[in-house]
Amino acid sequence: MRSHSDVAGTGGPRPPAVGRLLRHPDVVVLAARHGRAATAAAAKTAVAEVRAGTSASGEERALAKRVAQLLDGSPRQLRRVINGTGVVIHTNLGRAPLAARAAARAANLAAGYSNLELDLRTGRRGDRHSLLADILRRVVGVEEAMVVNNGAAAVLLALTALCRGREVLVSRGEAIEIGGSFRIPDILRLSGAKLVEVGTTNRTRVSDYERACTPRTVAFLRVHQSNFRMTGFTERPRLADLAAAAHRSGLHLLEDVGSGLLPPAPAGAAFEARLGRSRSDGADLIFCSGDKLLGASQAGLVLGRAELVERLRRHPLARALRPDKLQLAALEETLLCLEEPGGLEQVPVWAMLRADPRRLRRRSERWAERLRRIGLPAEVTSTEGAVGGGTTPGDPLPSYGIHIPCPRPGVVRRRLLAAETAVLCLERPGGIVIDARCVLPGEDGPLIATLAGVLGPAT
Ligand SMILES: *Cc1c(COP(=O)(O)O)cnc(C)c1O
Q: Mind spelling out the 3-state secondary structure of the chain?
């Protein structure tokens, strides 16, 4: 039996130099079959894995085997990862997992031709941007809608098509960075619109906007403060008041809501803007992502007044920001789920957000028991997950998971990521934690097997 400290990667021989590994008889055979360059690259990877602690043995024979593995069954670069973090919309993990129905729909569509740009009623050329307009109108309750590649693209397109060369007023508290270097001031510059900041960082009033209006002003841009929260002495106009002020001056009110929220919000997400509500409060155009709280594919939704949406559709930039058929297929199917009574549970983001903590606890208990039976001292622990995706900061999702003690959690974390079934866990002092909330149905078996393989006693 190996002890836990062995598993943590301290023991074992140092890896040989790449040159020496290439002279190993098994590797020489591989080089004859796969070519020297590819074999050398694989050997380099195998040695690097040992140095990084993601591969257990630096022994030459084991390394030669690893080189063969790398050359033959190259693992895919894009792979499934079991999400043990408790963060539901995890940007590093591809945000929303799709509903099974949505994934199947995308796969089916992908395997054949489709009417992506063909109007089946007239036989004439159709517009992919408007393909989902009907269902969006129905589900969100807006008069017009279009879909682009992602949320950032929606904002960029609208600012370019409607505000280029003119002034756009943004509250100082909303000239923010969303992450992944999406910064509101940068997007405005890129669009050719001029950003005029109004108010102060913590307090902005309708009168601040009104005072800053000039003949060159074209719109107010309201941005959801997605990933941070201001508390204390703060003030922000109600959307309806801001819309009224914009319309009195003949200007547009554009709202970047970020996440978008359709179904009844679970406790933690009550703070997110509601799409239909934004429109009825007077926002002329609303932008949001498809793969955050909507729980669908990567996409950017533009919702609101028909004549403005039409201008976006006709703008040449729309061509560069267009969505792909797979995105649209998955988005349409997810919207159908959200529209159905009881369909919410089919959308993984919503099923996870609404998961009953008592069930998460029972599931964690079952995992801990299975692991203890194979000699791993796992224990149930309470955890704090998050909605994620730059939504509802500071609102933790109380949850349950398992804690597995190990001396070097950082090393174990890397090994779990390098395992055949990659697992992303949380590092805690003296151990790792797997939060049960985002481990999908059907992933229990592979999760336990991977934990056993990486942490368990060798059999
Ligand atoms: C996430 C977000 C975006 C960017 O959307 P993507 O779909 O990631 O491009 C823009 N604005 C806000 C407020 C956001 O939260």
A: CCCHHHHCCCCCCCCCCHHHHHCCHHHHHHHHHHCHHHHHHHHHHHHHHHHCCCCCCCCHHHHHHHHHHHHCCCCCCCCCEEECCCEEECHHHCCCCCCHHHHHHHHHHHCCCCCCCECCCCCCECCHHHCCHHHHHHHHCCCEEEEECCHHHHHHHHHHHHHCCCEEEEEHHHCCEEECCEEHHHHHHHHCCEEEEECCCCECCHHHHHHHCCCCEEEEEEECCCCCCCCCCCECCCHHHHHHHHHHCCCEEEEEEECCCCCCCCHHHCCCCCHHHHHHCCCCEEEEECCCCCCCCCCEEEEECHHHHHHHHHCCHHHHCCCCHHHHHHHHHHHHHHHCCCHHHHCHHHHHHCCCHHHHHHHHHHHHHHHHHCCCCCEEEEEEEEEECCECCCCCEEEEEEEEECCCHHHHHHHHHHCCCEEECEEECCEEEEECCCCCCCCHHHHHHHHHHHHCCCC
